[in-house]
Write a structure and sequence with these properties.
380 residues; alpha/beta; TIM Barrel; Sulfite Reductase Hemoprotein, domain 1; 2 domains; 8-stranded parallel beta barrel; 5-stranded mixed β-sheet; 12 helices; 15 strands; 19% strand
Amino acid sequence: MQLPRNPTRSVKVGTCLIGGGNPVAVQSMTATHTQDVAATVAQANDLHQAGADVVRIAVDSTKDAEALAEVRKQTPANLSVDLQENYRLCVQVAPSVDKIRYNPGHLYHHSRTKPWQDKVKFIDETAAANDCALRVGVNCGSVDPDKLGKFPEHDSISPMLASAWEHCELLDKLGFTRYVVSLKDSDPAKVIEVNRRFAEQRPDVPLHLGVTEAGLPPDGIIKTRIAFEQLISRGIGDTIRVSLTVPNSRKSEEIVAGKQILGDIALGRVRSVVDFGGGLNIISCPSCSRVENEAFIELAQDVKAMTAYAKAYEITIAVMGCRVNGPGETDDADLGLWCGPTHVNLKRRSVELGAYKYDEILPKLKAELDSLIADRSQPA
């Protein structure tokens, strides 16, 4: 069965065409340290061979950008670069990639007095000069701060939409239409709602779908499947990423899972009658090059195993692998852990509770979880 498609424009990313009625493209991201060129090349090629249409690599520094140039020489994969706070690095990375992803909420971290519009203009001019597409990547944990204050605190979707629409409008005004948009959250229901509302207003813009911090398989695949089934079956979504917390050697499982979900939707084998809303919810980010201690992967697995006794309680625990996104993206969880090189930071919502060594964190987490359970009179 041919999947229905929204009438979006087509965006070229290397040899891949996203939107415009083309097959839904499947993406993943390397989890190696970008400056480890051999390891990054090996993983990019592994993902490419598994069927990845686009492979994303994170760049946070000039040395990362130099390494990326070497990676480019050794892989046939269509490459996307993930810019974090330093938008100015796009000049160094653009010659080595086919697409640049920037986060509107991160544009404030450098050159704070410069208008964000000037920064976007700088990025789009660089992309155009180097034959690159763009992705406007809006993430629930790092929304444009100017937008957050304009909506009620409980409404996390409207600020994301306002930011995305604003950036689309500016790019259109600048004459740059070779872009896709992503609006990601760790809650599948919010992913469905935010992308549905965006597509209603901008059906012309290709959408990159994903449930951020989906977590460990199989739960992470189930969460992602629920969102994708509801959106793709309605023609919404042109490229996908299944974000799983898995060791580097298993990163290609993201591609396998994505293709399986797309195949099932095409055959009408949907499962989203599953209600994932009740009970314990463990979210964890996919490993990437920003992870400073690979013990994060094992920690996420240990957290899932240790907390199984609380499965009946409607509590969300977030396990994040780096200091870039971790602090902000654990704010909405009942309990949050974000990992540094030697210590794990424990939070209760937005309140910092302390930093503990990796071999000390589980008892601390259990004590806080028990305290939360004691506060709840009844299981969910």
